[in-house]
Design goal:
two-stranded antiparallel ribbon
Length: about 120
């Protein structure tokens, strides 16, 4: 099943974001072996070169590592994963707060909306 991509943004960037989220959310845990480039490309419905570019970017960030004989794995640096989880949450919070401020809501109203959404 193909992943859904936003046509207004580079696909490789969206792949990086998706795999990063899969790691920080725990779908792939520290030290887990990742699918091959070809397997990931088939799953996402993209060209293997695009997937390779995304995985190389993740490797450059230190989130994944490549072992010559055993393929790519999630880093075992749990501090890095925790930091990325926190940064991702902060970015989402900033976007939410920008939206609520633009809509004329106070911080307390924005918090209440989050609480209500959490209870549904």
């Amino acid at each position: 099943m193909s992943w859904n991509f936003d046509e207004t943004r580079p696909i490789f960037q969206q792949i990086v974001e998706r795999i990063t989220m899969d790691i920080v959310s725990g779908k792939y845990k520290a030290g887990d072996k990742l699918p091959s480039v070809r397997e990931f490309a088939i799953e996402a419905g993209v060209n293997p070169n695009t997937m390779q570019k995304a995985l190389s970017s993740l490797e450059d960030s230190g989130l994944i590592i490549t072992h010559r004989n055993s393929g790519r794995m999630v880093t075992e640096d749990t501090k890095l994963i925790t930091k990325l989880r926190k940064n991702s949450a902060q970015e989402a919070a900033k976007s939410y707060l920008e939206f609520t401020k633009a809509a004329g809501l106070t911080l307390n109203e924005a918090i209440e909306i989050l609480k209500e959404a959490d209870n549904k």
